[in-house]
């Protein structure tokens, strides 16, 4: 069967989501579908349809007579997002470790490449590149489980987490710890040790959650 070609709605959906994820459309930004279409250089009708899907994912809110509002995240939202990702990524890492040795080797190579890019970005002080590489590591980890439902759930929640990640990078002082924690996940997957992979993935997300939430409180950030 031939692969389905992306539609104009798919293109609009990807463009709006990318603008939300990278902060082009910041939390609280409000505009009409026409204004968003003009800013992104796409047609209004597919933007309207794309926004309906993004609303289901919790990234935007359609307000009658006011237009489209980019949803902000409160600290409680961030905590709940981390709780979900801790569970999902732990199980994903365990499933990845259960795959055949040849597949695990490919998973290890991909995850290691993302981790190397994180280290390189951190060394040159490129926080945006670090955040993008970190996001790719976690996306690839989840996809390596080979469970489509896990991937779809994680992608929706992960988009919200990525925005929080990018908006708080300048507040976090221990970014270098992530690479070592990622290495522990990679090693467990490579060894085919599911319980160790689960535990390492959970520890990593639990540590970043425990680091980030007090920072939000200390800086008095009520919305991201």
Q: Your description of this structure?
A:
With 224 residues, the protein is mostly helical. The chain folds into 2 domains: 8-70, Winged helix-like DNA-binding domain superfamily/Winged helix DNA-binding domain (Arc Repressor Mutant, subunit A, Orthogonal Bundle); 75-218, GntR ligand-binding domain-like (Four Helix Bundle (Hemerythrin (Met), subunit A), Up-down Bundle). Helices cover 71% and strands 4% of the residues. The chain has 9 helices and 3 strands, in the order αβααββαααααα. Strands 1-3-2 form a 3-stranded antiparallel β-sheet. The chain is globular, with a radius of gyration of 18 Å.
Write the layout of secondary structure elements.
Blueprint: H1 8-21, E1 30-31, H2 33-40, H3 44-56, E2 60-63, E3 67-70, H4 75-97, H5 101-123, H6 127-143, H7 148-168, H8 177-190, H9 194-218
Antiparallel strand pairs: 1-3, 2-3
Helix pairs in contact: 1-3, 2-3, 4-6, 4-7, 4-8, 4-9, 5-6, 5-8, 6-7, 8-9
Structural Rg? 18 Å
Identify the overall geometry.
globular
The helicity comes to: over 70%
| Percent of residues in beta strands | under 5%
Q: Count of DSSP E strands?
A: 3
First-last Cα distance: 43 Å
Q: Count of helical segments?
A: 9
Structural class: mainly alpha
Assign the CATH class of the largest domain: Mainly Alpha
